[in-house]
Amino acid sequence: MGSGKRLSVVLIVHNEAGLLPECLASVQWADEIVVLDSASTDDTRQIARLAGARVFTATDWPGFGKQRQRAQGYATGDFILMLDADERVTPELRQSIEAVLRQPQAGTVYSCARSNLFLGRFMRHSGWYPDRVVRLYERGLYRYNDNPVHESLDTRQARVVRLNGNLQHLTCRDLIAFQRKQLQYAEAWALERHRQNKTCGFWSIISHTLGAFIKTWLLRAGFLDGKQGLLLAAVNAQYTFNKYAALWALRRTSERDSR
After folding, report:
1. Quick one: fold of 7-172?
2. What does DSSP say about strands 132-138 and 79-83: parallel, antiparallel, or unpaired?
3. pTM of the full predicted structure?
């Protein structure tokens, strides 16, 4: 990349052969690409190596947060850009990142605006845009927390600077596959809350579900995203229902087994 700080693009992946090539092509300008694979059974590792990435394998799964920590541990650059296989760096975002690497600001992390694809449409409302996420940061100062799901970068109260340009996120290309992933997230969420002795009542399931629909469709102007906005509101409501219903069911099972 020339003068300035070195950049390591870091990904954790599992069976991402279909998405990985375009993702890696969008960051070929980086100094280093690190891919930590979770025992994929497709061509993920081969594709990553052919793209010039340094590829590592983990046979166990400690959760998203700790897996990102592991992956970052293999990086050697001054800065980390943490990506997922279904994300692409746009040319404008690349320029913004390169400007940071030439003149970084101390005590600062950098956020990207994600443009999320839902059933063929990059959403502009519904709470899905700009959907800012902190992804660019100094390797030696910051790392992800230990959360097994919905992990985030521990910024240690650093100043957050917004980068120009979008990070394209191919969130939902296939509704059934997206629903399966949402169900996995809901299960992980419920299990984690159950381990923390969190509970919810039956009517709390209903109120949270209705609230999720109203928030997406009305408060976040999902109606401006057309048919996809309405479907997304329903999907968010279903995801919320699954989370709270699973937590409620876990509590009921636990109480029954303890008798």
Report:
1. Spore Coat Polysaccharide Biosynthesis Protein SpsA; Chain A (3.90.550)
2. antiparallel
3. 0.84
